[in-house]
Structure formats: structure tokens, C-alpha cells
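Weekly puzzle thread! Below is a chain. First person to post its structure in C-alpha cell form gets bragging rights.
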Amino acid sequence: MPLGRSRTMKTTMKTTTKSILSLLVPVLCAAMLWVVPQTACAYNWKFCLRWNVSSSDTGIGEDYYPISTGAPARNALVHWLEPLPSGFGGYRRLDGNGCFNLSSDHNSGFTFKLYADLKMGQTGNIRVKGFASESDKSSGTVTRWTIYSGSLGGSGGTRYFYVPVDSMGRLMGYGQWAVGREALG
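Winning reply:
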């Protein structure tokens, strides 16, 4: 066999092998995904966080809306964590009702860190942050509250959590409620 022809055959065989492998790998991956089914999360939760504030109408003619079940922590920043050993978590903004959805394999032991970091107004263009002190403001350390879920029981659904009562929480709750009320018309 002439030398030139041998080199051509080797190059052709390498090219053919690469072509076969490039087609075979996606097929094998797809087959493995089909054989090994993906498991769905056992629980579908909707977690809602509320500012622990309340008010009542005194009946003297003010334009006032009573709050009896806490004000939703609308568009607040929350950091959530699943229980160990997974410890999976993330940051997100709560929706307009102060809630977020989460699918998980857990039904207890969640940790929520609610930050005094809100987006308000119709378009979320007003941003409000709460600081406990001037030094916190200088360092950018926003006030936060930690809430532990404990055992949730059941097989998913909606659960409400209230921010512990303190002056910053009341200020954020009433302020957000007032600005949100005006923005919503």
C-alpha cells in the first residue's frame, strides 16, 4: 500500500470515528435521562411573610384602611434556606402579596431572613432600606429578621410567617402599606 493512501485512510477513519461519537454521545445521554427518571419534589409550598402590624378605623372620617392580619412584605428581599444536610437556598424578592413559591423535599426546618430592603411604588422604582444605626448605614448593613419555620406539617400549601415585633418592623410595615396603598390607587 502506498504511503499516501495509508495516511488518507487513517485521516478518514479518525474523521468517521469523530462523526460517529458526535452522534452517539447525545443519543446515549438522552437514553440515560429516559432510563433514570427525574424525581419531583415532594412538597409545593407558598411562603408568605407579613409585617406584624395592625390598625383600626377610629371612625372620625379619615381615609383609612384597617390592617388586621399583618401587612404583606411586598417586594421585600428574602434569603431562604432549606434544612441541612442540603442547606440549599437563595435570595429573591417577594411578590406583591409578600409571598414566594418553593418546591422542596422538606416539610420543616426552613430559615427565612427578611431584609429591610423594599421596592415600592407601582413600578418598584422606589427603594427603601432600613438601618439600625448610623454605622450600619455607613457599612450598608441592612436590618434583617430571622424566622424559623419549625414543622410545617401537611403536604404543601400556603404558610404565613410574621416578622417579630420591633420598631423597625413596624416602621417598614406601616410605611410599605401606606406607599403601596397610594401606588395601587
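Puzzle host: Confirmed. Bonus trivia for everyone else. The chain has two domains: 1-38, 43-184.
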